[in-house]
Design a protein that fits this description.
about 325 residues; Porin; 2 helices
Length: about 325
């Protein structure tokens, strides 16, 4: 049985909202979803009167050609999103944070590296086998109508998100926090840095310690999507998202983690896989330094092939101040 995002979200809420490990700051960098307000991974545990500072980079590559009926989609590009997050929590159990992204979509340098990665692990190369290396082209046609055909690199400020949290429970083993997020249209849909609309989402993030060295974490959310500027006639009003993961403390400050992210389709009648629901597996680890800084390093793969970027490299750095 395929576990779809709404079912996965419900399951996460029913497993006693578990994790002492933190989720990776991984995101779906599908250029056509730029700026839609699917909630990012949010903290499950609030730490009293504390400021937090985090910076992360997601660097993705995708190369695909998809056809279904009268539709054709070509996406061949790299996306790099750097995100700065500044947060504040209070001993009353409330928290607030702002996320400021900067996004680039265009040509890149990863194609040969990813070809070698796929060859090493016996993964399918798909359209990479016949596409020019390191080019940029994002095109969509329905019948004889070409809705867009972008062939130049674009970058700029992305859609800023304001997040407001309320702790639901907190103990040595378990924590859960509810979050309301409002995503502002500060980016530019024509430059693939935003959606052109204001979105809002509700999410519950949770963690649970499974033992001395094991922990689990999860999040479930639903987003209300304002009418964006790209493929607006086909855009849905709501989208589900969820993540679930497990961590193992391997050595001192080193924790190895695996995380599954999923979200429902943002566009109606999505026969093209890249416009439908997505399932992404991220694996790697984090290291907590004695200074209090935490470094995350990970790689994401689209386990539902061509539903998201082929590969995303994830780098995160954060600290409670």
């Amino acid at each position: 049985m395929v576990l779809r995002p709404p079912h996965l979200a419900l399951a996460l809420l029913l497993i006693s909202t578990p994790a002492a490990a933190d989720p990776f700051p991984a995101r779906d960098l599908n250029p056509l979803l730029a700026g839609f307000g699917l909630p990012a991974a949010l903290p499950a545990r609030l730490s009293g009167e504390t400021w937090t500072l985090a910076a992360d980079l997601n660097w993705a590559s995708v190369s695909l050609v998809q056809r279904a009926g009268s539709e054709q989609l070509i996406v061949d590009a790299e996306t790099r999103e750097a995100r700065l997050t500044i947060g504040r929590s209070w001993s009353s159990g409330f928290a607030a944070q702002v996320q400021i992204p900067y996004r680039y979509t265009g040509g890149g340098v990863l194609d040969s590296t990813i070809d070698s990665w796929h060859e090493l692990f016996g993964l399918p190369r798909g359209s990479r086998a016949f596409s020019p290396q390191d080019r940029v082209r994002i095109a969509y046609a329905s019948g004889n109508t070409v809705l867009f055909d972008e062939r130049s690199s674009q970058s700029g400020l992305g859609d800023i998100s304001l997040d407001f949290g309320r702790s639901l429970s907190s103990s040595a083993a378990t924590a859960a926090t509810a979050w309301l997020s409002i995503k502002l249209p500060s980016g530019d849909a024509d430059r693939f840095t935003g959606s052109g609309a204001t979105d809002a989402s509700l999410a519950i993030a949770a963690e649970h310690r499974l033992g001395e060295n094991w922990s689990a974490f999860g999040q479930a959310g639903v987003a209300w999507l304002g009418e964006g500027e790209r493929l607006a006639a086909r855009q849905r009003d709501f989208a589900w998202s969820a993540l679930a993961g497990i961590g193992w403390r391997a050595w001192r400050g080193l924790e190895l983690k695996a995380q599954l992210d999923a979200h429902s389709a943002v566009f109606d009648e999505a026969e093209l896989d890249f416009l439908g629901e997505a399932f992404v597996l991220t694996f790697g680890g984090d290291y907590r330094f004695a200074s209090g800084w935490q470094l995350d390093l990970a790689v994401s793969e689209d386990i539902a092939v061509e539903s998201a970027s082929d590969v995303v490299f994830v780098l995160g750095l954060k600290k409670a101040l």
